[in-house]
Amino acid sequence: MPDIRCLIIDDEAKSIEVLSERLNLLFPNFQILDKITDWRKGLEILHTSQVDILFLDISMPEKSGIDILRLFSTIDFEVILVSAYSQFAIEAIKFSASGYVLKPIDDYELSFAVNKALQRIKERSLPKTVSH
Q1: 99, β-bridge pairs
Q2: 107-125 and 13-26 helices cross at what angle (nearest 10)?
Q3: Is residue 75 packed enough to be buried (19+ CB in 10 Å), middle (13-18) or exposed (0-12)?
Q4: Residue 39 burial class via C-beta count within 10 angstroms: exposed 0-12, middle 13-18, buried 19 and up
Q5: Which of 76, 115, 82, 85 has the alpha carbon at shortest distance from 101?
Q6: How many angstroms separate the CA atoms of 50 and 33, rounded?
Q7: What pLDDT does residue 122 have?
Q8: pLDDT at 132
Q9: What is the pLDDT of residues 25-45, one digit of tens each?
Q10: What residues form DSSP beta bridges with 81?
Q11: What residues of the chain score a pLDDT lower than 70?
Q12: Which of 28, 37, 71, 33 is nearest to 49 (CA)?
């Protein structure tokens, strides 16, 4: 599988750095396109760049991660929500998120979510077969 392009949107720089470190260690072939603390800039990148996996914080000022997802009519990238709060898990399911990783980040939870996203990306890239 070619390099996976990721984007991280989180209002806390420390959380971004922890997630980046874990991703670099666990998935060294991932290309982190950007690490964004401002949801507007993140939205711009999502509209102008090819992103395979979005790591998105939920609880942010002005717009939550869920609010950001609602701005898309179709989501053509995998979403892994990262949050310190478990109560948003139902919303994550509504957006077919590949995963929901609680802070502080656990390597097993992160790997599980990322591997699910990678599987979905792989399945999308397979040629469609027509059944008769």
Answers
A1: 80
A2: 70
A3: middle
A4: buried
A5: 82
A6: 9
A7: 94
A8: 58
A9: 999 999 999 999 999 999 999
A10: 56, 100
A11: 1-2, 129-132
A12: 33
> Residue 97: CB partners within 8 Å, gap ≥ 6?
79, 80, 81
pLDDT at 126: 83
Whose tokens are 């874990």? That residue is: 22
**pLDDT at position 130, please?**
62
Per-residue tokens: 53: 């996996």
The pLDDT, as a whole number, for residue 1 is 53
Q: What was the pLDDT predicted at 68?
A: 94
Q: Are 19 and 8 in contact (CB under 8 A)?
A: yes
Task: Give the tokens for residue 107.
Answer: 């390597």
Query: DSSP letters of 45-92?
Result: HHHHS--SEEEEES--SSS-HHHHHHT-SS--SEEEEEES-GGGHHHH
User: Measuring CA to CA, how many Å separate 65 from each of 5, 9, 35, 45, 103?
Assistant: 19, 8, 15, 15, 15
Amino acid symbol at 55 = F
Give the separation between CA 132 and CA 121, rounded to whole angstroms: 25
